[in-house]
């Protein structure tokens, strides 16, 4: 982390606690314990991020788009791509991080620090939500889990369009439940946040929107006015305006791709193939979000449904025993939030059967809330149940501790912004007039390198770097590729009859310099 990164990190660390406290005095009464967790959470999410930041194809692509607006005034109507070919998210994420790219003079670590800060506020938000849904003790436990969860920490350290979804989804359900309890002034914000969340990660946000619609129809609509419903709908629909304009300008590219994904059987796999792997994948992912790694060899599907049955029986029994009507409604909201997406994913056969872990990003939040609710009940019970709850939290903390330490060390391994900057600085320092650069990352999309070379040449006043063109003298930058035959064919044809002058390694990035013999 360079000097500028450290100064910004320290300033944010000093000021955000004071700002949150001022907001707290006028809005929510929050104990000091929660703000300490927020501070610790931001430290774990932001420390050494300038070195350890994962900056690859997606991040380079986004940075190039934002650079186009900053330097050339090119606005954008769409955002990043989705897992479905031809479907683009809205531009919310680009505009969200745009000011921080500008303030950081193009340094990707600055918008990443902002996202880490925004994510650390999730600790406060989940406390407020747990308190509203159940009680203050459940909210405090949920905040503790989210603060130290290695999964949440790792996810919050990503410069990704999905990262804002965690705090946004917590705010959505916080405002939704407040509306259910009679504070209907928050309901239009639910519509706005749901619309914006659909521009962060489509699969997660779609189910969030579905849960909000079902819960609102059953419990909330009868408490709000027609004017509030119309305002909510307008705020929700207005978030789609940029994508609608883009769709009309480009022969309905997005709408045709969405329709094709649902009606075209060519991109679907069989339900049998889905059930062979997906139930166990979801179960392992949920358990892993607690910091516990599980490995099974047999009966994965049976184990998953045993777990689901157990959770339903235990929580269903607690649900029936509740005397507080609001607490029942809170449990129902968490049930819907967890099980509607979880079960729906077991029947989704599209996108050629591909299923990525980020589809499940918002599911660990209701999972944490359920666990927090149960632990709060244990803490209210007998001495033995209190010991069990404390033991669980101790195991959780120790299981996640080892994973957290790696974020606090300087990055001298693997692939990150640290190694990328080393590579780019080395090549620019050694590059002679007429020499060119060949870049080959595993996906053959060198956007991260293109952005950093472009950024640094402009800052240093150097000529623009030329990529992947024929030249007698050139640098080759590549990373390990799992498709060895494909890589070797490209590499051998490039360096054939060339003389290797020098080779340097920065983490997993290999840089070689060649000239004609």
Can you give a write-up of this model?
This protein is mostly helical and 517 residues long. It has two domains: 3-266 and 361-408, no CATH class; 417-516. It is built from 22 helices and four strands. Helix 2 runs antiparallel to helix 6 (109-133) and helix 5 (92-103) crosses helix 6 (109-133). The longest helix has 26 residues, at 383-408. The chain is globular and about 80 Å long. Residues 294-302 have low confidence and may be disordered. One of its GO terms (cellular component) is plasma membrane.
How are the SSEs ordered, and which strands pair?
Layout: H1 3-26, H2 32-46, H3 49-52, H4 57-72, H5 92-103, H6 109-133, H7 136-148, H8 150-156, H9 165-180, H10 187-197, H11 202-220, H12 226-238, H13 241-249, H14 253-263, H15 271-288, H16 300-321, H17 325-344, H18 364-379, H19 383-408, H20 417-430, E1 436-440, H21 447-460, E2 474-478, H22 484-495, E3 498-506, E4 509-516
Features:
mainly alpha, 4-stranded mixed β-sheet, 2 domains, 517 residues, 65% helix, 4 strands
Outline of this structure?
This protein has about 525 residues and is mainly alpha-helical. Helices cover about 65% and strands about 5% of the residues.
Main sheet overview: 4 strands, mixed
Strand order of the largest sheet: 1-2-4-3
Distance from N terminus to C terminus (CA atoms, Å) equals: 41 Å
Mean pLDDT: 83
Give the low-confidence spans: 294-302
Number of structurally distinct domains: 2
Shape: globular
Strand and helix order: HHHHHHHHHHHHHHHHHHHHEHEHEE
Number of strand segments? 4
Q: Which range best describes the helical content: under 10%, 10-25%, 25-40%, 40-55%, 55-70% or over 70%? A: 55-70%
Q: Please work out how many helical segments DSSP would assign.
A: 22
Tell me what portion of residues adopts beta-strand conformation.
5-15%
Which radius of gyration do the C-alpha atoms yield?
25 Å
Which structural category fits the helices and strands? mainly alpha
GO biological process, one term: lipopolysaccharide biosynthetic process
GO molecular function: pentosyltransferase activity
Subcellular location: Cell membrane
Protein name: Glycosyltransferase RgtA/B/C/D-like domain-containing protein
């Amino acid at each position: 982390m360079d000097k500028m990164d450290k100064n910004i990190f320290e300033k944010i660390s000093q000021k955000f606690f004071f700002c949150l406290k001022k907001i707290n005095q006028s809005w929510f009464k929050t104990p000091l314990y929660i703000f300490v967790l927020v501070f610790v959470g931001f430290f774990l999410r932001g420390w050494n991020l300038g070195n350890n930041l994962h900056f690859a194809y997606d991040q380079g692509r986004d940075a190039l788009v934002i650079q186009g607006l900053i330097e050339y005034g090119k606005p954008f109507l769409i955002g990043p791509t989705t897992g479905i070919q031809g479907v683009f998210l809205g531009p919310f994420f680009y505009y969200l991080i745009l000011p921080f790219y500008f303030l950081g003079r193009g340094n990707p670590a600055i918008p990443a620090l902002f996202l880490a800060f925004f994510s650390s506020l999730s600790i406060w938000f989940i406390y407020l939500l747990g308190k509203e849904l159940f009680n203050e003790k459940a909210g405090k436990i949920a905040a503790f889990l989210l603060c130290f969860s290695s999964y949440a920490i790792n996810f919050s350290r990503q410069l990704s369009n999905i990262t804002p979804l965690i705090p946004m989804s917590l705010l959505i359900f916080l405002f939704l439940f407040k509306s259910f309890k009679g504070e209907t002034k928050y309901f239009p914000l639910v519509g706005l946040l749901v619309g914006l969340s659909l521009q962060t990660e489509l699969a997660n946000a779609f189910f969030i929107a579905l849960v909000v619609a079902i819960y609102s129809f059953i419990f909330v609509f009868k408490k709000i006015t027609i004017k509030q419903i119309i305002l909510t709908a307008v705020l929700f629909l207005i978030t789609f305006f940029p994508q609608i304009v883009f769709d009309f300008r480009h022969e309905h590219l997005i709408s045709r791709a969405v329709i094709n994904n649902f009606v075209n059987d060519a991109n679907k796999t069989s339900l049998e193939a889905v059930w062979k792997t997906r139930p166990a994948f979801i179960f392992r992912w949920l358990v892993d979000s607690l910091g516990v790694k599980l490995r099974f060899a047999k009966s994965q599907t049976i184990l998953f449904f045993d777990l689901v049955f157990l959770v339903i029986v235990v929580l269903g029994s607690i649900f029936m025993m509740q005397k507080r009507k609001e607490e029942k409604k809170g449990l129902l909201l968490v049930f819907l939030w967890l099980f509607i997406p979880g079960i729906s994913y077991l029947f989704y056969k599209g996108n050629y059967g591909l299923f990525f872990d980020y589809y499940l990003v918002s599911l660990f939040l209701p999972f944490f809330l359920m666990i927090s609710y149960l632990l709060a009940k244990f803490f209210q019970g007998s001495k033995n149940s209190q010991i069990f709850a404390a033991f669980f939290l101790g195991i959780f903390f120790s299981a996640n501790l080892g994973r957290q330490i790696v974020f606090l060390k300087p990055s001298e391994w693997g692939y990150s912004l640290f190694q990328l900057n080393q590579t780019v600085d080395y090549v620019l320092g050694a590059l002679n007039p007429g020499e060119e650069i060949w870049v080959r990352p595993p996906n053959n999309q060198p956007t991260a390198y293109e952005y950093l070379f472009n950024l640094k040449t402009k800052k240093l006043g150097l000529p623009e770097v030329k990529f992947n063109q024929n030249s007698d003298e050139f640098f080759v930058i590549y990373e390990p590729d799992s498709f060895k035959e494909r890589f070797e064919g490209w590499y051998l044809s490039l360096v054939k009859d060339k003389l290797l002058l020098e080779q340097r390694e920065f983490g997993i990035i290999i840089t070689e310099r060649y000239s004609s013999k």
